[in-house]
């Protein structure tokens, strides 16, 4: 994996054998981050979903959509975002997943990405657009060290594949009002015959 090309403002959350997890601010300008955010918010193929929790069906507190990078339906804004990300992380991404946190009530609980849905030793890269939200990163085993990281518009978070073994991450609800945020997640998924992820 190619190293990122700049160091100013970089936060290395984890550097040892359980990581890496590294935060890179300002990989794009505020103006470009806003333009991409507006385009995706207004034209993304957003869906609501629900899941069973405590024996009842509940709504997932965020919107989501997914794009296969090889698809002709990939929006041009995501092609542009992929090109920028690949300038910094030289990985053959084939999947882009988006989550839209509409306001302070939307969230995602602490979790790790399912490793069987990822190609081993390929990182996950998150590009943040829109409002700043706090990500909680917590070690699974004692000592359960916890980091709260402010994900700002135009920033990139790199999580190594092995970090999914050792850390959970999530976006908690907030008590104060906040605007919408879009997380653009670049992954390398295993090849599947039906190409449905």
Automatic annotation (TrEMBL):
| Pfam families with a match to the protein in the record | 2OG-FeII_Oxy_2
**Top-rank lineage group of the source organism:** Bacteria
PROSITE patterns referenced in this protein's UniProt entry, alphabetically: FE2OG_OXY
Domain spans labelled Fe2OG dioxygenase:
92-190
Q: Which InterPro entries match?
A: AlkB-like, AlkB-like_sf, ALKBH3, Oxoglu/Fe-dep_dioxygenase_dom
Protein name according to UniProt: Fe2OG dioxygenase domain-containing protein
Annotated source species: Dyella nitratireducens
Tell me the organism's taxonomic lineage.
Answer: Bacteria, Pseudomonadati, Pseudomonadota, Gammaproteobacteria, Lysobacterales
